[in-house]
């Protein structure tokens, strides 16, 4: 390699701390406990983050075990080597009173609550727990997880949490139409006509992000499934409503019911994108997703099912390739011998 090429490679290694992509962590994730990703990217662009004394030039630079991260020359930023482990995908049976926010300054935020579940078996006192901790035996601190979407503080039921940001947007984008099922109790109880009107769609006003800003948007909700039901699946007893939504506007069900003069007094989510509360039926309990559930949320590719004939053809093709390589290898050996 020419001298110029060596110089370029050395400079790239210095900028990234000599790290490759495998088994590494992006620098902007080391500060995520105190700063948002955009804030971290801004600090990096301003040259205020160093790794092992070298100014970080890109958010794509990587960390490896033992690297020392500093912000404005301050004391080393604590980050765990465990963050380099495999991604985690978890479902939690959220009790009432937990706020689905990653802002740890908020009392009762779901990040602190979820981490505390690994320390107190059977739930956390003061939060109405009582379920079992996850049965996979892993520590929740192995890799910090964050909620996918949100449930209101007063709502209960299924919430997904993950350390894998790549699955979040596809799950939440309205165009993906990942169905969410809820059991709802209203006061007064909804009539059959109320259920029909809600299913056809009603006009509500809800905040939404437009061009980077939060604005109020008034629009009719998309047609959805709304049925009258009894108290089941964790919902309070009595006549209630079963909603299956494909969209996810801010406090949508509460606003839909309010448009008909119905006050929601209990809202319980029982499924999201095909994942249910199976395995964590009690409040405050959690389990890691199964392989099948990881497929449902897009974290794992679905294994293609092949017929016996296809399996036999693939085996024969693989055996033929192996035999061809062996023959070519033997031929080269004979040529050298003679």
Automatic annotation (TrEMBL):
<dbReference type="InterPro" id="IPR018496">
    <property type="entry name" value="PsdUridine_synth_RsuA/RluB_CS"/>
</dbReference>
<feature type="compositionally biased region" description="Basic residues">
    <location>
        <begin position="314"/>
        <end position="324"/>
    </location>
</feature>
<dbReference type="InterPro" id="IPR002942">
    <property type="entry name" value="S4_RNA-bd"/>
</dbReference>
<keyword id="KW-0413">Isomerase</keyword>
<dbReference type="GO" id="GO:0009982">
    <property type="term" value="F:pseudouridine synthase activity"/>
</dbReference>
<dbReference type="GO" id="GO:0003723">
    <property type="term" value="F:RNA binding"/>
</dbReference>
<feature type="domain" description="RNA-binding S4">
    <location>
        <begin position="25"/>
        <end position="78"/>
    </location>
</feature>
<dbReference type="InterPro" id="IPR006145">
    <property type="entry name" value="PsdUridine_synth_RsuA/RluA"/>
</dbReference>
<dbReference type="InterPro" id="IPR042092">
    <property type="entry name" value="PsdUridine_s_RsuA/RluB/E/F_cat"/>
</dbReference>
<dbReference type="InterPro" id="IPR036986">
    <property type="entry name" value="S4_RNA-bd_sf"/>
</dbReference>
<dbReference type="InterPro" id="IPR050343">
    <property type="entry name" value="RsuA_PseudoU_synthase"/>
</dbReference>
<dbReference type="GO" id="GO:0006364">
    <property type="term" value="P:rRNA processing"/>
</dbReference>
<dbReference type="Pfam" id="PF01479">
    <property type="entry name" value="S4"/>
</dbReference>
<dbReference type="Pfam" id="PF00849">
    <property type="entry name" value="PseudoU_synth_2"/>
</dbReference>
<comment type="similarity">
    <text>Belongs to the pseudouridine synthase RsuA family.</text>
</comment>
<protein>
    <recommendedName>
        <fullName>RNA-binding S4 domain-containing protein</fullName>
    </recommendedName>
</protein>
<keyword id="KW-0694">RNA-binding</keyword>
<dbReference type="InterPro" id="IPR020103">
    <property type="entry name" value="PsdUridine_synth_cat_dom_sf"/>
</dbReference>
<feature type="signal peptide">
    <location>
        <begin position="1"/>
        <end position="17"/>
    </location>
</feature>
<keyword id="KW-0732">Signal</keyword>
<dbReference type="GO" id="GO:0001522">
    <property type="term" value="P:pseudouridine synthesis"/>
</dbReference>
<feature type="region of interest" description="Disordered">
    <location>
        <begin position="300"/>
        <end position="338"/>
    </location>
</feature>
<dbReference type="InterPro" id="IPR020094">
    <property type="entry name" value="TruA/RsuA/RluB/E/F_N"/>
</dbReference>
<feature type="compositionally biased region" description="Basic and acidic residues">
    <location>
        <begin position="325"/>
        <end position="338"/>
    </location>
</feature>
């Amino acid at each position: 390699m020419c001298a110029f090429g060596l110089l370029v490679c050395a400079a790239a290694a210095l900028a990234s701390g000599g790290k490759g992509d495998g088994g590494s962590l992006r620098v902007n994730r080391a500060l995520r406990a105190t700063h948002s990703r955009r804030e971290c990217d801004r600090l990096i662009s301003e040259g205020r983050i160093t790794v092992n004394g070298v100014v970080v030039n890109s958010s794509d630079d990587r960390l490896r075990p033992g690297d020392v991260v500093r912000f404005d020359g301050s004391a080393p930023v604590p980050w765990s080597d465990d963050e380099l482990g495999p991604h985690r995908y978890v479902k939690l049976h959220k009790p009432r009173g937990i706020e689905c926010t990653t802002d740890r300054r908020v009392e009762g935020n779901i990040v602190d609550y979820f981490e505390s579940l690994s320390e107190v078996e059977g739930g956390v006192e003061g939060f109405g727990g009582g379920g079992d901790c996850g049965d996979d035996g892993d520590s929740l601190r192995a890799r910090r997880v964050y909620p996918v979407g949100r449930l209101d503080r007063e709502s209960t039921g299924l919430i997904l949490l993950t350390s894998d940001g790549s699955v979040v947007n596809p799950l939440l984008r309205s165009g993906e139409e990942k169905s969410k099922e809820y059991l709802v109790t209203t006061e007064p109880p909804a009539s059959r006509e109320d259920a029909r009107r809600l299913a056809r769609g009603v006009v509500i006003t809800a905040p939404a992000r437009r061009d980077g800003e939060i604005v109020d948007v008034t629009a009719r909700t998309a047609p959805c499934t709304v049925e009258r039901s009894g108290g089941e699946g964790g919902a309070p007893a009595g006549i209630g409503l079963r909603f299956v939504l494909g969209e996810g506007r801010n406090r949508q069900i509460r606003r839909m019911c309010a448009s008909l003069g119905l006050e929601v007094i209990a809202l319980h989510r029982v499924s999201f994108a095909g994942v249910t509360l199976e395995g964590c039926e009690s409040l405050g309990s959690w389990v890691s997703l199964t392989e099948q559930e990881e497929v449902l949320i897009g974290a794992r590719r679905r294994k293609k099912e092949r017929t016996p004939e296809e399996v036999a053809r693939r085996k024969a093709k693989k055996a033929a390739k192996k035999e061809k390589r062996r023959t070519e290898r033997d031929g080269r050996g004979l040529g050298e011998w003679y």
